[in-house]
Amino acid sequence: MKKIALVSHGCAKNLVDSELILGLLAQNGYEITLNEDETDTVIVNTCSFIADAERESIRSILELADKGKKVIVTGCLSQKHPEELKKEIPEITAVLGTSDFTKIIEILKSDEYINAVNPEPDYIYPENIERQQITMGASSYIKIADGCNYRCGYCIIPYLRGNYHSRKIENIVAEAEKLVQKGVTEVILVAQDTTSYGIDLYKKPMLAKLLKELNKIEGLGWIRIMYAYPTMMSDELLDTIASLDKVVKYVDIPLQHSHPEMLKMMNRPSFDYRPMIENIRKRIPDVSIRTAFIVGYPGETEEHFEHLCNFVRDMKFDRMGVFTYSREKGTPSYNLPNRVSTKIAKSRYKKLMEIQQEISAARNRTFIGKTLPCIIECYSDDGEVIARTQYDAPEIDGIVNIKTKKQVVPGDIEQVKITDATEYDLVGQI
Fold first, then answer.
1. What is the secondary structure of 221-277 as a DSSP string?
2. How far apart are CA 258 and CA 275, in angstroms?
């Protein structure tokens, strides 16, 4: 039996693709390993969202080529630069795009170089493949759609993934049921924009309906939604999140900026976001709102940036990420004038994060003395238990460090008394 290794880069959506690739390999009789030293054939699923992600993917490919491996490159980087990759790294055996899963088997059986990248990607989720999970823990991602119909100025994803395609509700529910049977407690719904779910299939937004169906699954603990879009935060969706016991009271809504002029330049919805944020908090009591902003976008002035700083101070987001603008070929913003220097972008990043640190620290202190349900992740090296509240998504938000003599099991949801807090993390006991 031929053994194949896989290296996965990038976001949670890419992780799901990697697991689908592994599922396809398993269906075709291949043995799978995540240790590239155990085989001479390695698939690298790459990321190309920003320059740093590209560099990380290229480093992986070069290291494997240096070891004399048969390297098959797939994902966003090969979709974006198939010819350049082969030219710069001639040892590459094959390149696949973002929507060409099924060609992997053909490539594995061939000794010839194959460029199997479709220049017009159109990602349709392969429902006939059962994912082989790389990480089995308390939570697992479910991709409810892929592609994107928006054309935000900074984003390359629509050009690498094609237009938006939703999966059917019954397929998503069936996948969630299988995950629960395997021991998963929390499912995390991902797409380029989860709130547009269903419009292409059912002619109207159907995320609320999907949540209601998932909420019926016996044994499922939590349901989390990521990557909401500002214009799609309907009262129906907010009321559904508030009413369903398994849907965590957590809204992830990347806003990217606050100033109307900047939003317009970014090809984003340009309106005052304050009433929307207030409405989310009114309709979902005790909600935690996560957002993300870009600083240093072409044309961003000091006045625009100060507007953003004041917006963050006023809105007091529970969780927040900040990114410095990354200039990517093929995006609408690539040739925009009035570029912001790297030095200024970095200083703006630092200032905005410092504002948020104070907000986050104050928010976390409000939990001291309270008892919160927390999902158990793992044990740390020194024997402490690592957990998360419902207000924290894995890997991007904070954790709870728990001291306890009780034997706990990853995936269980335990009541934890919070005893201390830092800017981003909590301390608790069972």
1. -EEEE----GGG--HHHHHHHHH-TTB-SEEE---B-S-HHHHHHTTS--S--HHHH
2. 12
What is the CA angle 277-280-285, rounded to 5? 130
Residue type for 46, please?
T
Phi, then psi, of 312 in degrees rounded to 5 = -65, -40
Integer Cα distance of 158 and 145 in angstroms: 13
- For 238, the token pair is 């907010």
Pairing of strands 114-116, 94-96: parallel
pTM to 2 decimal places: 0.94
Cα→Cα distances 194→144, 179, 352, 403, Å? 7, 20, 27, 36
Q: Does the pLDDT at position 371 exceed 70?
A: yes
Q: What phi, psi does 384 have (nearest 5°)?
A: -75, 155
Q: Which of helix, strand or coil describes residue 208?
A: helix
Identify the band that residue 127 occupies on the pLDDT scale cut at 50, 70 and 90. Answer: very high
**pLDDT above 90 for 48:** no
Structure-token pair, residue 348: 């703006």
Instruction: Please say whether the dihedral angle defined by the alpha carbons of residues 315, 321, 323 and 329, taken in this order, is positive or negative.
Output: negative
Please report the domains of the chain, with CATH numbers, ordered by start residue: 3-116 (3.40.50.12160), 139-365 (3.80.30.20), 371-429 (2.40.50.140)
Q: Which amino acid is at 79?
A: Q
pLDDT band (50, 70, 90) for residue 1: low
Residue type, 17: D
Residues 116 and 82: their CA atoms lie apart, in Å, by 9
Measured CA to CA in angstroms, residue 407 lies from 13, 272, 376, 381, 428 at distances of 33, 49, 11, 16, 15
